[in-house]
Hints:
Elements: H1 4-8, E1 16-20, H2 24-27, E2 39-43, E3 46-51, E4 57-62, E5 66-72, H3 75-80, E6 82-89, E7 95-101, H4 103-120
Antiparallel strand pairs: 1-2, 2-3, 3-4, 5-6, 6-7
Amino acid sequence: MNLKFYKRNAVGAERQLGHTNYHWLTTAPKLWLPRIGNEFVISDQRVFVKTGIFSTNIRNQPLAQIENVYLKQSLVGRLFGWGNISIHGTGGHPIELKNVATPLKFYNACLHAIASRQLQT
């Protein structure tokens, strides 16, 4: 996964803890275009989501403002390794990541980052 945009915009000594992208099976009917230009990253400071190739949407959620992280996987999603992640913070709209690869790994990275951040404060 190419994380050029995230790496160029990392804040200070920010460390990446996990990343994911759309699962290849869920984007196969549309070819590979939905996977290009997307960056879904969890760092030790924030959740960073960038989508789009020609027009870009960027969402950041500081870890200190995250209240809940949800993972939803169907039976087929569990068998083939995709699922949906919803990150709810204080105020605003949740960050929805649909049909992402290795969702349990990203979910656990989110929980670990949030717990580590809470121990620091």
